[in-house]
Design a protein that fits this description.
Pfam families: DUF2550 (PF10739)
Number of domains: 2
Number of strands: 7
Keywords: Membrane, Transmembrane, Transmembrane helix
Shape: elongated
Radius of gyration: 22 Å
Organism: Halostreptopolyspora alba
Largest sheet: 7 strands, antiparallel
Protein name: DUF2550 family protein
Length: 160
């Protein structure tokens, strides 16, 4: 049938494959680093963890939140995706609770973080029944988040 490849040829193929994979890995690392630099260079952001729902049903995701006029845009740290993974609109956002990380949270978080549960007001103006997201951040970052939440750009009004 076909010609058999010598061990030297197999070694050359493996060597080229190794260097190709190493190059791809290094390029991905550089891309993640450049993306993070671009996110952080303009300021107005905070490192925080995010998870959907409450009660530990989903894992915590490490990320970077950037404050905008009307929303908090949350980006995953280890991602090449240029757009935010989640956008938390400030309009109607309600903090439903604040707590220290539970023992099960501490497998993914550190003990110096504060966990807040957030949701949005219903159209009738009532408070949400269940949190939509949990956000974990340092105490100083939480102070900045609360200031951002309570402030409002000129000319805007709170209309649900």
């Amino acid at each position: 049938m076909g010609e058999q490849l010598s061990s030297a040829t197999w070694f050359q193929i493996a060597e080229w494959l190794f260097f190709a994979l190493l190059t791809i890995a290094l390029l991905a690392l550089v891309a993640v680093t450049v993306r993070r630099y671009l996110l952080e260079r303009e300021g107005g952001g905070v490192e925080c963890y995010l998870r959907r729902g409450s009660g530990g049903r989903s894992p915590w995701r490490m990320g970077y939140g950037r404050y905008g006029a009307g929303e908090l845009r949350w980006y995953r740290v280890f991602s090449l995706w240029p757009w935010p993974t989640a956008e938390l609109s400030r309009r109607g956002l309600v903090i439903m609770g604040r707590r220290a990380p539970t023992p099960s949270d501490l497998t993914e978080l550190t003990s110096d973080l504060v966990v807040i549960e957030v949701g949005w007001m219903a159209p009738d103006g009532s408070d949400p029944e269940e949190p939509i997201y949990e956000i974990a951040m340092a105490e100083g970052a939480l102070t900045g988040f609360l200031s951002w939440l309570e402030s409002m750009p000129p000319g805007d009004s709170w209309q649900p």
